[in-house]
Structures are given as structure tokens and as C-alpha cells.
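R.M. (postdoc): so does anyone remember the format we settled on? I'll just put the C-alpha cells first.
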């Protein structure tokens, strides 16, 4: 039982970091970028400057929470898709409750807390395909296999060149896509409460995953093949997140450049 326990624990830890590595590391980086964007607006045209993206991005964020809460049968008591408050910095919220004895609802906290990081990026990929003429080609450069940092850097360079191609810059649909993407990507990052709720549900998932791994090994299933399928799914999700980070970083650069003259005027 000792070797089995050690093997299952090792597999589960790897899977744990695969899940939380994709969601939480991406969420952390996105939060940092989002904070810098907010600073650019706050130091130039004031806190309300962020509202030009928040009026659209915040409802997408909150609707993601609400939709997922309903999926996991949580009781929603209040939904504020867009209610900006300069004092607290809150832009919207969803209040919900659940039966702590219900495993399905408890596990749902993980997906509810991180719902914007799941629904938002998929929506951004859809917009890329729907609004940008060469959208499918653009995304291909990020979704391929990049086994080294130089390869990933080359893919990012190709992504930017093709995204800001002369044909796209002359197409009004591209500018519509860019604005909507900025608005959504700027408000995907989870709040502290979102991360806390997700962690609570995530710990339950890890415990269930540990038990499932024991079952897999006792049944003598091919654990390597099972794990590979597991990792491939999150590798594909990581490609979507790289794309979202590129959109967010582009917004950061644009906000820094466009708002720079106003920032100089501040005392």
C-alpha cells in the first residue's frame, strides 16, 4: 500500500499543479496587467476612465459567475452586472449560497470562482474568428506546439504581425474586435473572493482526483495514457490563455501610450 499511496500522491500533485497552474498563474498575471491598466487610467483621466471598458467587460465577468452558479444549482440572491463604486473599487458582483453538504454544489465553487477565466477566453477566441478576416490563421500561431521559449517568442511575434496587418488595420471589424477584446480581457481577472471560493472547491476536486487515481491504478488502467490526455487538455487551454495575455498586454501598451500626454499634466 505504501508504494501505491506514494505513486498516487505523486500523480495527484502533478495533476493539481496542472489545474491550478493554468488557472491561478494565468489569473495572477492577468490581475497584475489589469492593475497596471487601471493605474494608467487613474493617473491620467481618473478612476472613471476604466469605465469605457468596464461597462462591457464587467457584465461578461459577472454573468460568467451567475451562469456557472446556476449550472451547479447554487441559490443566487443578487446579481449586479454593472454597479461601479469608486470608494470600494467594485464594479459588479454576484451573491450566491449553496448546501455545504452537497458535494456537487461544493465542488462547483471551483468553477464558479474561475468562471470568467473559462468563459471569457473562449468568447475572445470566438470574436477573433468572427470579426477578424484572418482570425483562424492568427490563432494557429499560438496554438501550435512550442517546446522552447524562443519558439514561443517567435509565435508571439507572428501573432502580432498578423493581428496588426495592414489589411486588418483598414477593416472596421478589426477595430470593433480590438475594442470588445480590450473590454472583456481587462475584466477577466478573479477577485480575492473569487480565488478563495475557487480554492475551497479545488481542494475537494484534488481529494476526489486522489481517490480516482487509486481506482485507476487498482484497475490496472494505463495511467500514462490517462495522464497524457489530462495534460493535453490543459495545454490546449494554455494556448487560449497566451492569446488573452497578448490582448491584455496590447491594451496595457495602448493605454500607456495614448494616456501619456494627460499623465504629464498631472501635478
Amino acid at each position: 500500500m505504501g508504494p501505491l499511496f506514494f505513486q498516487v500522491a505523486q500523480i495527484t500533485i502533478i495533476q493539481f499543479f496542472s489545474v491550478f497552474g493554468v488557472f491561478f498563474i494565468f489569473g495572477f498575471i492577468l490581475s497584475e496587467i489589469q492593475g497596471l491598466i487601471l493605474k494608467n487610467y487613474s493617473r491620467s483621466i481618473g478612476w472613471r476612465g476604466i469605465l469605457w471598458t468596464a461597462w462591457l467587460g464587467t457584465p461578461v465577468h459577472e454573468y460568467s459567475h451567475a451562469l456557472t452558479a446556476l449550472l451547479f444549482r447554487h441559490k443566487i440572491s443578487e446579481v449586479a452586472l454593472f454597479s461601479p463604486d469608486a470608494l470600494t473599487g467594485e464594479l459588479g458582483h454576484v451573491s450566491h449560497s449553496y448546501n455545504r453538504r452537497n458535494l456537487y454544489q461544493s465542488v462547483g465553487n471551483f468553477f464558479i470562482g474561475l468562471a470568467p477565466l473559462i468563459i471569457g477566453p473562449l468568447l475572445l477566441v470566438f470574436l477573433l474568428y468572427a470579426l477578424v478576416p484572418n482570425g483562424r490563421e492568427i490563432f494557429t500561431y499560438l496554438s501550435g506546439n512550442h517546446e522552447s521559449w524562443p519558439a514561443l517568442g517567435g509565435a508571439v511575434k507572428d501573432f502580432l504581425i498578423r493581428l496588426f496587418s495592414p489589411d486588418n488595420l483598414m477593416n472596421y471589424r478589426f477595430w470593433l474586435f480590438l475594442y470588445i477584446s480590450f473590454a472583456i480581457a481587462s475584466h477577466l481577472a478573479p477577485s480575492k473572493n473569487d480565488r478563495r471560493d475557487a480554492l475551497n472547491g479545488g481542494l475537494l476536486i484534488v481529494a476526489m482526483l486522489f481517490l480516482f487515481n487509486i481506482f485507476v491504478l487498482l484497475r490496472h488502467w494505463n495511467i500514462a495514457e490517462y495522464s497524457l490526455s489530462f495534460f493535453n487538455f490543459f495545454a490546449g487551454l494554455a494556448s487560449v490563455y497566451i492569446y488573452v495575455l497578448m490582448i491584455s498586454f496590447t491594451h496595457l501598451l495602448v493605454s500607456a501610450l495614448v494616456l501619456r500626454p494627460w499623465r504629464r499634466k498631472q501635478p
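R.M.: ...and that's the designed sequence above, right after the C-alpha cells. Also worth knowing: Residues 177 and 183 are 10 Å apart (CA to CA). The longest helix spans residues 2-42.
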